[in-house]
Amino acid sequence: MTIDIKAATRSFLAQTEEHLVSYLEACVHCGQCADACLFYRTSGDPRHTPAYKLFPLARAYRQQKWPLNWFACKITEGDLLEWEDLIFDTCTMCGRCTEVCPMGIDIASIVGQARKAWADAGLGPRDLMAAAENSRDHGSPLGLTQEKLVDRVEWLADDDEVDMPLDKPGAEVMLTVSSIEAMKYPKSLSAMAKILNHAGVNWTFSTHGYESTNFGFLAGRSDIAATMLGRIVDAAEQAGVKTVVIPECGHAYGVMRWSGANILGRPLPFEVLHITEYIARLKREGKLKLKPYADPFTYHDPCQVSRRGGAAADARYILDGFATGFKEMTPTAELNWCCGGGGGVQAMERAADLRHKAFKIKIDQVEATGTGRLVSACANCRLTMDESKTYWNWGGALESLVEIVADHLEDV
Ligand code: SF4
Ligand code: SF4
Fold first, then answer.
1. Ligand 1 mean position to 26 CA, how many Å?
2. In the chain, how many domains are there?
3. Is 99's C-beta closer than 6 angstroms to any atom of ligand 2?
């Protein structure tokens, strides 16, 4: 294995010019972030303390910027190898540590930036890097090629008797997909279609830009992140849509909504909404008529939608007056515990054991509600929880918020 330490150092130093430096200076080493992290909470390993993940970038910064920089140590191959599991395997970029940090340090952003240095050095988990490269080369990390998308949409439209337009001219809304949904939970696609049709929305899927997950971003591969974003942005611009809707995928939403313009270097000429935000809007506009739903369940907030996306209230608004069996878990909304698989951790085989163990936090949360059923709005959370459920032989049920809404639409 060749490790390009010069490329990694250049990458680190490029980032020390940015606002992230203020975070490196601001940490007061109070340790409050430790207990907020699902991995530290699970392992008790001091290496899993969130603040420890600042170290590689901090060392590069001191090497370059400190007045007495000749005393500062250089980043070494050993550092990169030692910290790799902390930057990739044990950080879902969930942002929970920031909620408790008295200095408001955004560890998730620093981890995201640090991943670029690992990728530039030729390091990083092989399966995560392969998922990113598959996205670039085949349109999706899970084999959802353009042909397969067309095939899936035609099959679902036929099977579920729902109109699912592809490349429809004049559409105002473009719906994107997550290949996790398309390949593992395909009914989510027809569920979105049913809801938008019910509300009379003029919408379409696009064969030119459909995959909203962005493993380039998660792997630290800026080039692939831009390619994946560019496909959707180009498709939306050519179609002239006003709104791009991100499906049940948290990171896909965060990348497009909050980082998209910066990655591409220009404003996005359309609004970006997560599907829960969009459904809540339809309800506010009186376009969503739902039959009552009384089954007991609790709601798992996807970190990138509720905590980092600020859209926790929209899921509750959808459920309000409709789902009478809904019961909050504790803690919830912005302080909810991560499923363990965000930030690409779900795709890393070597990270599976610890993330499965971390899921016990979620099981205990659900059990405490007495509902035994977990509903969420992220296919990556759903896949993570499905696998961890098997690991623990847990009997709780897992469902999709969008599918439940679609199953309870009133006839119009
Ligand atoms: S972002 Fe989440 S997983 Fe990463 S260090 Fe903070 S709490 Fe832990
Ligand atoms: S809570 Fe914030 S200030 Fe305290 S150790 Fe963690 S990152 Fe540093």
1. 17
2. 3
3. no
264 near 339, Cβ under 8 Å?
no
Q: For ligand 1, atom 7, which residue shows the shortest CA distance? A: 37
Give the residue, by CA position, lying nearest to ligand 2 atom 7: 51
Q: Does one domain contain both 274 and 145?
A: yes
- Domain of 330 in residue numbering reads as 289-407
| pLDDT recorded at residue 82 | 87
Q: Tell me, in angstroms, the distance from the centre of ligand 2 to residue 104's CA.
A: 8
Domain annotation covers residue 412: no
Residue of the CA atom closest to atom 3 of ligand 1: 91
Q: What is the pTM of this model?
A: 0.94
Same domain, 140 and 271: yes
Residue ranges, the chain, pLDDT below 50:
none
Of 67, 91, 124, the last residue of a domain is: 124
Q: Which atom of ligand 2 is nearest to the CA of 104?
A: 2
List the CATH number of the domain containing 235.
1.20.1050
Ligand 2 contact via 191 beta carbon (within 6 Å)? no
Does 273 share its domain with 163? yes
pLDDT of residue 338: 97
Q: Give the pLDDT confidence of 20-54 residue by residue, as tens digits.
A: 778 888 899 999 999 999 999 999 999 999 999 98
Q: Are residues 163 and 101 in the same domain?
A: no
Q: What's the pLDDT score for residue 254?
A: 95
* Ligand nearest to C-alpha 89: 1
